[in-house]
Amino acid sequence: MTTPNISVYSISDLKNTTDDALPNYLTSLKFRQSHYLTDVRLGLGYTAVAIAAVTFYADYKLGWDATKFWTLWAVIAYFILNGALTYWIWGVEKGQIFNGEINDTSVLGRIPLGLSLLANEQHQILIASSVSKHKPVYNLKVQYGKAGKETQTLTRSAPFTQWFDSDGYFVAAPFQRWLASEIPLVGEADPRKAGSGVVGNEARKTVKAQTTQEMDPPAKASAPRPRKSKKAP
Predict the structure, then answer these.
(1) Are 103 and 122 in contact (CB under 8 A)?
(2) Are strands 152-159 and 122-132 parallel, antiparallel or unpaired?
């Protein structure tokens, strides 16, 4: 299925499209995604909506006098649930787009036996994404490690132009190569795309160049030198 094109000037659209593509790629590599955080968020939201709908229906059918006591508690419950939902999104999820795990049985046959970091181990991975205002650069914070043990944290950034063409179409291959070359756990699961890490190196150079360009002050234009007038013979 062809991915619809989006505006290359809309950073939120670029981020959302990329966020949707990342879990699809990882699950194709046999990463098992946990939907716990999403389920809790949906549960809080739907419960708040259900309370509002039931309260409205009861008031419509029974009248205000018969329902005002229960309406008070319904309003309190509604605001508590919305407060919990807000905290869950900003305080717990914190931009998380993937939470999953993988073990050696998912990659046997693709990596030589004894060379994989995943051998006889279950690894967990947590990925959160973010963008800065007016800066078309995709930022990832990745935490990964063996289940139940200390995790490693790394941050990676790349411009959206690395995997979006000039017409706003998302191109999956360069995005997947960037992930595989920048995140060791993904590179283990997809060594063919990890390659030599050229895509990752180019992305870092582009981000560094953009940052330097933003930080450097514009050069001051020098005043033109006065021309010497020739004396008449």
Answers:
(1) yes
(2) unpaired
